[in-house]
Amino acid sequence: MTPRPADSPLTWEHREVAQARIRQAARQVIIRRGLATTVEDVAREAGVSVRTVFRYYPTRDTLIAGAVREIRRLLVRPVEGLPDPAVDLDAWLLALATEVHRRLTYDLGRAFWDLRVTEPDSAETFAESRAWHRAQMQALGDVAGVAWQAAGGPGEPPDSLVCIFMLMFSAFTTQALASDFGYGPDDTASLVASTLKVLLVHAVDERTRSQPAPSSPR
Question: What is the Cα–Cα distance from 41 to 36, expressed in whole angstroms?
């Protein structure tokens, strides 16, 4: 972080506010348009001139990279108030799926396709996004483990179930159901939660039946 100049607090505060305003405008445009977003688009959204944008962000790449970091920050903020999965697994799955797919709809939007499928102009943005995505996949594997234990599954969840969790909580699912069937995030969450519950029960039952029966004492 750049140190705050001791002799100009008002100037520093103005700069912080202006940068945040432009960055938020960039985030909103990227959500709607993806990485095709131009500096002109951002200036129009922020209600400032292109020259003002460049005063605070010297290049388009630095502007886009800052906005993408803000998108990622919003996506990974803690999810609070979830039910206890050990007490009510159905409610936990639905609440978690609802929050995830709302964020993927409203905080990521169109940017998902560009960040996952096409290489952004900024190498920095591309590398950071790839690393972030890998970390998110690991987190979803942990979610599958929590659900597996709450459903009574012995040991570790099957790899196939972990993959299904990753898919069901991914923006691929959010975007596909929205574009192909007109699903909103809450509709998607309901379908995801009910599907995962059925698959969990089946996988736990299959694993339990495959376990060797305990030997009888002699």
Answer: 10
